Amino acid sequence: MAGLDPYAGLPPVASFAVRSASFKDGETLPRDQRSGLFGAGGKDISPQLSWSGAPQGTRSFAVTLLDPDAPGAGSFWHWAVLNLPADTAELPAGAGSRDGSLLPAGAFQLKNDGGFPGYLGAAAPPGHGPHRYIVAIHALDVEDLGLDARAAHAKLASALVRHTLGRAIITGMFER
User: Fold this and answer.
1) Rounded Cα distance, 51 and 134, in Å
2) Is the distance from CB of 65 to CB of 76 less than 8 angstroms?
3) Residue 88: what are its φ and ψ, rounded to 5°?
4) What are the chain's domains?
């Protein structure tokens, strides 16, 4: 695969479990999680996610979805959710809607690389080969990362490096 692991080289953190009723780790993402907006025949519905076993001291969670195989310089951000309360253990399918109405109180979404807040489904360019869509649940040592909905992804990445106690990862695949 063309891209690097977006978490390689970061300080080691504890791992915990994540699973999805929407797709299985390493398998092709179903139509719901593919992009309709970017012509991949999908519905742009964020996957159902549930997690357990976060490290002691977790005060909040963040969820990110990156495509490290996207053409160009760096990963393509498909989704970022911040300030999920520490007692959150699941997000329903569709929680990444633009209005964020299925997110817990206080949580919010950054703009994806498509330019809007919320989930943008998989949309690997035709003929570019298989792409990995890495969903990471970050267990954080703060209740609030100190960012707002206008924050750039570089600021989020920096804050995550400083505050992540543990990380759970599940990866979907897609190519056209």
Assistant:
1) 15
2) no
3) -75, 130
4) 14-174 (3.90.280.10)
Helix (H) or strand (E) holding 18: strand 17-19
Tokens representing residue 27 in the block: 């398998």
- Is residue 162 a contact partner of residue 156, using CB atoms and an 8 Å limit? no
Helices (H) and strands (E) in the chain, counts: 1, 9
* DSSP codes, 76-133: EEEEEEEEEETT--EE-TTTTSTT-TTSPTT-EE-B-TTSSBS---B-PPTTS--EEE
The one-letter amino acid at 42: G
Nearest to 107 by CA among 159, 144, 69: 144
List pLDDT tens digits, range 6-56: 777 777 788 999 999 999 999 999 999 999 999 999 999 999 999 999 999
Tokens, residue 100: 């964020």
pLDDT tens-digit readout, 99-128: 999 999 999 999 999 999 999 999 999 999
Instruction: Give, in order, the Cα–Cα distances in Å from 39 to each of 23, 31, 42, 51.
Output: 20, 12, 8, 31
Contact assessment for residue 136 and residue 168, using Cβ atoms and an 8 Å cutoff: yes
For residues 101 and 111, give the distance between their C-alpha atoms in angstroms, rounded to a whole number.
16
